[in-house]
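Input sequence (252 aa), recorded before submission:
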Amino acid sequence: MRVLLFGALIGLATVAGAQGPSRPQIMVSGTGIVQTPPDRVSVSFTVVGEGKTSDEAAAKVRDGGKAIGSGVSGYLNGKLQWRASQFSIRPLRPAKCNPEETGLPVATRPLGSCAIQGYAATMPVTIETSEIDKAGTMVSLIGRLGGQDVSVGAFGLSDPDDARRRAMRAALVNAHDQARLIAEGSGAKLGALLRVQDADYVGEERDAAWDKNSANAPPPVLAVVPPPIAVTLTPEPVETSVRLMVAYAINQ
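Predicted structure, token format:
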């Protein structure tokens, strides 16, 4: 379950040196929690290519990425965003390689236990899409097309602002109910709202503009044959929580 949290910290102290608030107050902490069905999902995997030369390994990653991207794009009808921001190539050595030998210059490195036998290139990829009902099947499709370590990353909201507003309203209602009960219990009458503050906000990092049909996605294909293994997932709703510190006046 993913939790988005609004933190609110408020001090009751007045100007330094003052003895206390100028009028009686009730201070409460109000909490609002809303749950929203997700409309966005990310799937991560790694494209791997091996070859006798680094160029061969890199070419296999390039071609493998294009094949996976085309297959997934066709399955999702182009409704995806393809993210690949890392790429690495490393030499492949025998399993019995002596680690101390790897630090030697290439010209003096022994041709025995640590001789380079090939190269492995890797490219981590994340696909984001609004087609959340296809997430499980997409994992099976990427695995068939050669992706490694395939997994559903997270379900989320493409625009969580509406959920935050609803949670904020719920937090204000919760704070008012608490303050009213406190006032009634103490024989006073709840007065006007004096102060509300939400600070130290911690939220979900997201792109300013998330395009469901990103131009970065590989070109689609017409169909996937045979159809991928269908897997149905039932994601939990995204929980948005807001906490506010609220001050009310007390009418005598």
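Checked by second reader. The radius of gyration is 28 Å.
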